[in-house]
Amino acid sequence: MAALVSSLAEFEGPIGKRMRAIYYLRTLGSVEAIDALSVALRDKRNTVLVRHELAYVLGQIRNERACDVLECTLADGSDDAIVRHECAEALSAIGALRSLPLLEKLCDDPSIEVGETCVIARDYMLWLQAADGSVAPRVCACVNEFNSRDPAPADPAWDGVATAKVRGALLDASTSLFVRYGAMFALRNRGGAECARAIGDALVYDKTSALLRHEAAFVLGQMQDPAAIPALAASLRTLSEHSMVRHESAEALGAIDGNARQWAQCEKLLTEFASDDDVVVRESCQCALDAAEYWSDADAAAAAEALEQ
C-alpha cells in the first residue's frame, strides 16, 4: 500500500506507472485504497487525466466513503470540466441518494458536459428507484461482461431488434441522452463488428453532444473490435474535437484486440499523437501504449509458461 500511495504522488513520473497504481488500488477496493484515491483526487498537482481516472475508479469501487470527495469536486465550478463530469458519473455509479440533490442542482451547470452528465446521472438514479415494475430488471444495469457500472442501463426493449434500427435510436438527436445511451449499451452488449460500426457512426457523425461521443469512444474500447479502428482514428485525428472525446478514442485504440497489422495501425496513431498539444490527449496516448505493452508482456509470459508445462 505504501508503494502504491507513493506512486500516486510521483507527479513528474511516467503517467503509465501512476495509472497502474490507480487500477491496482481499484482491485483492492479497501478503505485504505479509497482514502488514497480520494487524497490523490483532491490534489490538483495531478493532471486532469489522472484526476479523471481517479474519479472513475472511485465510482467503480461503489463505496459511499468516496462521496465526500466526489461531491466536493463536482460542486467546484472552478475545477476542470472533464474531472467534474467524471465525478458526476462516479456518484451515479455509487448510487447514494445523498448525492441526488447535488446532481439535480447541477443539471444546468454552465459547462454543458457537466450539466449533461448530471442529467443522465439523475435520470439513472431515479430509474433505479422506480418500483412500479414497469422498468427493466436492475440486473441489466448492474451486471455486464465488461466489469463496469454503466452511466445508463442497456434498454432490453432493443433485444431482437435489427441493429440498423437500434443505430437509428442512438443517432436520434430528438430523444434524451438517457434513451440514446440505452441504445448504445444495448449495441455494446450485443457485440460484433456491425454493432461496433454503428457506435462508431455516433462517434464520428453526431454533432449534438461531446458527452455522447466520449461515451461512444469508451464503449468501443470495451468492445475491442477492430471494426472500430476507422471511427476511433477519425476522432483522434479531428483536432477540433473536444479533448474528452479524443482522449477516450486514444485509450480505446490501445485496447483493440486485433491482428498484428491492425495493432500496428493503432500503435502508429498513438505514437503520432503521443506528443499532441493537448495534454489530456497526449497522456492518453502514452497510457494506451503503456497498457498495450503491459498486456502484450502478460500474454507472452502466459504463453511461455504454457510451453514449459
Task: Name some characteristics of this structure.
Leucine-rich Repeat Variant, mainly alpha, 309 residues
Could you characterize the architecture of this molecule?
The model is unreliable at 131-142 (pLDDT under 50). The protein contains 17 helices and no strands. It folds into two domains: 1-135, Leucine-rich Repeat Variant; 145-309, Alpha Horseshoe (Leucine-rich Repeat Variant), CATH 1.25.10. By secondary structure, it is mainly α. The protein has helices at 2-8, 15-28, 31-42, 48-61, 67-75, 81-94, 100-105, 112-129, 139-142, 163-170, 177-190, 193-205, 210-223, 229-237, 243-255, 260-272, 279-308.
**For this structure, what is the CATH homologous superfamily of the largest domain?**
Leucine-rich Repeat Variant
The percentage helix is 55-70%
Report Rg: 19 Å
Q: Terminal Cα separation, in Å?
A: 33 Å
Give the overall silhouette.
globular
Low-confidence stretches: 131-142
Q: Which second-level CATH architecture of the largest domain applies?
A: Alpha Horseshoe
CATH structural class of the largest domain: Mainly Alpha
- How many structural domains? 2
Tell me about the largest β-sheet.
Answer: none
Strand tally is 0
CATH domain topology of the largest domain = Leucine-rich Repeat Variant
